[in-house]
Fold this sequence. Notes:
Layout lengths: L2 H5 L42 E3 L5 E3 H15 L5 E6 L11 H9 L17 E8 L3 E4 L6 H18 L25 H14 L11 E6 L4 H4 L10 E8 L15 E5 L11 E8 L5 E12 L7 H17 L3 E2 L8 E4 L9 H7 L11 H9 L3 E3 L5 H8 L3 E3 L8 E7 L16 H6 L15 E6 L7 H7 L8 E3 L5 E3 L3 H7 L2 H21 L6 H8 L12 H23 L9 H12 L1 H11 L21 E2 L2 E2 L2 E2 L12 E6 H16 L5 H10 L35 H8 L5 E2 L2 E2 L3 H8 L5 H29 L5 H10 L3 H11 L10 H22 L20 H17 L4 H19 L10 H12 L4 E6 L4 E7 L2 E8 L2 H18 L3 H4 L11 H8 L3 H17 L1
Antiparallel strand pairs: 1-2, 3-4, 4-5, 6-22, 7-8, 7-10, 8-12, 9-10, 11-19, 13-18, 14-15, 14-18, 15-16, 16-17, 20-21, 23-24, 25-26, 26-27
GO molecular function: ATP binding; helicase activity; ribonuclease III activity; RNA binding
Keywords: ATP-binding, Helicase, Hydrolase, Nucleotide-binding, Repeat
GO biological process, one term: siRNA processing
Amino acid sequence: MTVEQQESVIPVAQIPPEERPAAEQPPDLPTTIVVAPPTTVPAPSSAPLTYTSPAGVVLTFQNAGHHLSRWFQASGHTPTYNMEDVLPPGITEAPISKKAAKKARLDESDEPAAVPTGPPLGSMRVCTLDLPYTGSVRSGLWPNKGLAKQHASFEACKVLMDKGEVDTSFQPAPSHPRGKTFEERLETKSRCNYRWESRKLAIQDQLPQGTGQGDYEYKTTPEFWTTCPPFQPDHLWASVFQLSPDGEGNYDNHPECRMMCLITSRPLPFWSSVGETVVRMGVGEQPVLQASMRLINGGKMEPFQSGTLEQAQVFTEKLMRAQIQKPLMADLAHVKWLLVPLRRSFKAPTKEIVSQNKGIKLRLKDIAWKEVDAVTDGPLTMPFTHNDMDILQRQCKDRMSTVPSEMVRRNYIVRIRTDLNPSSPHPDHPEETILQALEKEPNPLPELSDPSQPILEVEPAALPKTGSYITSLSIPDEKRPKLYLIPEFEHWHCIPSSVHRTTSTMPFFIHQLESMLVAWEASEKLCGSVVRPEYALQALTAPAGMNVNSWTYERLEILGDTLLKFFATLHFYLAGGGADCQDDPLKTWQDRHKVVSNKTLAHNCIKLGLVNYVRDRRVKVKEWAPRDWDFDTWIGGTAMKKHLKTSEDKSEFRNLGDKLLADVVEAMIGASYLPNKDMDNVITTLHNLTVPLTLFKSWGDIKHVLQRENEDEEEEAKDPDLPAYMNFFAKSKMQYEVFGYTFKRRKTFEDVFSLSSKRETRMKRERYKMLGNAVLDVYIIDYLYENHPTEGPGSLSNMKTFRTTEGLRCALAVELGLQDLVIDGDDKTRRELGRATYFINEARKKADAGLSEEEQGEVHYWEEVAVNHITGSIMEILLGAILDDSDFDLEPTRKIFFEKILPFTEKYCKGPANTDMHPKGQITRWMQAKGCMMYSLDVEGPKLNIGTFKVHDKEIARESAFTTHLAVRNVCNAAIRKLKDEGGLEELCDCASFKKVVPDDKIVEIFGKSRRERMLEAQEKDAASRKA
Length: 1028
């Protein structure tokens, strides 16, 4: 543009009104209007192409639209461009051509004659832009709309700078800034939750009304005890129990703990369906020491001889008095169980034998009757024979040392120290002798008669109130307290050490056994006895009752929730007629939510009475005593008035929340699935828990719900116009095969990969996706539950989330090449698929770059790429379609999961040690660990989302992305690099709580271990296991 043309642009105020062209008259609003000079020929408007602001920022036709868009976004308005065709002065509109006029005259149809479209010949384009609170800006004359729009935007930016609406760098500074709506003020996750809650609110009145929490009955006493008759010598049943005090279930690795026999007058109720079970016990807090008792069905015992039953009663009484340290008394007419030890040579049966025979046949000769006789008929304690080494060794074998009194502490004899004598230096205090150390005790010692006698090395025997043998074993052997005693001053106790170790857990064991009996009653009455006793107890145990994640309902609740969602989805899929249903997907979602809602489940829990069986109380060991026992009437002249529990005690009451009740119902559903993964058991449990899924009673019934014909089996009619050889080729149908599965119905295959805009096809894909999502969730949570048995519910939930995101499904579809099977897509769709595939592959290459095969993994590279909804849904649609096409046979989809999906998720998805590694959580926990309170994270959108992280109002990082969650992730990663890796927080933060140093273990807790560290740890574990 020449200088003369630039000077021809003059303010409108300098042009006399009578000289202004009619097409260029300004509007009524007070504004600045840019007009083109009068011309006599159609030519572009003469205007400057650039403008330099006082800050040195150059404004051009090309970047004006970007600056203007940012101002409109900041002010909360949408730009409105109005185009009009204007004839320059001196140019008249050309008349209609003779050909067009003749055609108009000859048009005899009922439709009106075609009106000429397009701008008049010789006209120019003028663009008018409305600026809120400012007025309008009008461009000059330009030959096309693009240039006219650019010119209007260019002049609008200059007007906004003059008005102070943008600064000298054209950054928006609106006088009336845009306010965010409620939903826009939320972060991405909160916005999703808000939409979820809004959808649930639409059916709120169709759900049972919840109370939040309430007081419910607590069943404290198993009904089994009330049905047990008094003991009779010829009606006795045995249950063998074996202790694993370390919680690892290695029962054969602890020969120091004797196997015992629990005798009852009736067989335990669950022996009718299982041969053995495991009773889990937890001792202490933070952390809870875990142990387990293997309980085996011993069958009906041979008749006891006269007086033998009374011997067992006396043995049990003395044993419990020694453990509980209270003057307990057992009446054979009232007590519900007795204890006797088994011989040391008794071998525990294998699980295979127990499972095959539903238990074992315990014989009378398997019981250690000599030890029973020694306890019942002999003295409680006897002095050691310290002057005869052979006798002393026999007396010390499997014995405890004590003083001649009943209610005192005892010690397990470790060994006889022949290298020490009373005058030897004390091993822990060499400055004094063993005798001198013992003389410091409060009780005076008698005069020593044999200075050369050996020394007994012992360990204190832990009683139930101090944590039992479980607590002792948790301390490493070299750190356990050792005592050195002189045999002359000690007695040996009649109860063997091995028996004492096992029975020191009796309060924990009996409490859990009674809870298991209550849980079995719930399973029998409400679930048709399809839930094994140990899983029923786990499903009914709240965290308040057992602070071990793997022993409460929390893990089972995740499994049961997934199974409930799957069967509810399947039910409504079949109820609508399968994939051909044309109902609104929102209605299907609402129908399903009415079934799986926590309010519905809590209502069912209360209605069925399942709430009464929930176990949420722990055993109080110091107050515990066997049920139906009593105290001696007089002990030392003092009456024992404390009431002990009986089998006739009434129920108590406690307060429970609705969410807990709903979780218990879901946990019972999950418990019915284990350990055999039986879908029929799950369906039976759903019916028993009054979940309204009535279309099928077993998994085999599902394939008969939909009555349909196989179209592909019908022989197609021959086309008479085709040659015979063409009809021959038409018979050979194409094999519609994916991942080794051949579709029975060709139409199903086509619907899976079709992007047709037909409503029928779209609805089918939507229903296949709903079904595939549910079955994929079942496979994932089933695998995680089985392969991570000790992980808590939070870890399981995170790992499941990592494996079910739409971004992962996009990456998985690209990895498996599913996007290449898509049909019926237009050019735009295929371009989008191509772009998504390219960026996913590039992200994967970047994640794998420089890593060895062993180091690859736990890299969610798909999180750096925008989600493509087409590739993100293909896998779910395919799984749902295969499940439908196979007549609901789970094997094809399960095979695809284990062969195609699982290897990918195991390679790239985060494991249990790295389940909460989102950069936002990391930077938040890092700032909290450093003690800095002045930091903020903001994201502005909606098109190009810009995230900023500030510390004490100083911007630390700024990143942009096309989606909010990517912008958050990117800016948080940048902030972590700046503040943690590069340092600099010390210069910014002046908070009183600021900490300069964060412990290494805290850093590992926040940011996790590097992949190389985790790989080295795994290699060390593998090497140790191979060596073992």
